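Team,

Forwarding the record for the chain on the shared tracking sheet. I've put the sequence and predicted structure together so nobody has to dig through attachments.
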Amino acid sequence: MIADAAQDVTVTLHSGQWVVNQSSARFRVVVSGRRWGKTTLDKAEALSEFGAPGLVWYLAPTFDMARELMWDPLRTCVPRSWLIGDPNETRMEMDTVWGCRFACKSVEHADRLRGRGPRKVIGDEFQEWKEGQRVWEEILLPSLLTSNGRALLTGTPKSFNHLYNAYRKGQDGVTDWASWQFLTSDAPHIDKRFLAQMKAEMDPRAYRQEFEASFEAMAGRAYYAFERKKHVTRVELDPAAPVCIAFDFNIHPATAVLGQGFGEEARVWREVWIPMAGGESTRAAALRAHWHLAQVGWKGPIRLYGDPAGKAPKTTGPSDHQVIKEVFPSASWMISRAAPHVRDRVAAVNARCETMDGRRHFMVDPTCSHLITDLEQVIFDEDGNLDKDSNAELTHISDALGYWIQREWPPVPFKQHVGTTRLPDWM
């Protein structure tokens, strides 16, 4: 429900946000750690544009993110007297009495943004934009040059991708560009105890990237915190803890890992790696996991983990989820409803291997040769994604491990904080 005209609309900016907000540069880029307040700054920027005619866009990586991060918080604080008619909830657009049309959009189908002529673009989570360099250079920048428009691009580092390229323009003194880099700790509302907790839970590279706004080279090993000499050791099952079985639901190879968790520690006891199992790959993996447990006479509890996509029905038989339920009918179901982000899975595994404070919480039995190979050889491609093309046999069993680790020891959820700038005089 839209607030009435009597509502006092304020968005308070801290000093770093204020510096960016007051900059006269045409194209501004903010690189910051999580929870520094990028989206709060974006909200203030949007509100400050309501008093002038023209088209203003807020752009996010996906439609759902645009709604969650900007549309829902913004429309609830805009007084009804500012608007002409009701906001369009479907299109996420609102028209102000001063002639501004504000719209929240995604870059999922970026070519639809061509030729629209916005006078201001606010680009959030810029590092996550698909084909971000092309979208900026071929679609948005030409439109802004035509309309004499301006832009604010905000994000958290993701390797040296298009966010880094935009950031460098401001640092290198390119005309019309300005850029800033802020640590999470620069924000006055951040509790230092929270950062200490993150150091105890996150691997060093992820912590530097997410909280120190550091551009980290993602090319190279994905599971860089894993070292054979530190993490490979004999593992025995403990009857006091449940066995955790995690599946990837791949066809070739069929994979699974069996292990146990003890407090902060994950121990991998056995692996399943079956080539060329065809349409029965999931059943083959489940039966092999069952066989491993039968060999040691396991009678204790079992927990099942894996890819949420395995619930999809198949034309050739039951879904992957149905198959593993048939093989392990009494097991506890631990598969999440939605798939975790690949980056979260990788970060979770690295954080078990070693956290920012130097502690290790992971071991794997030497019999798990394929998992060890994965942890040593899976790499990121140049875009910061897992390389699944160079070697078709890699990534699958480490994916299985990641579903278990991420579920039990998840990375900290990064919630966006919508805070409170003094608004322009016309408000």
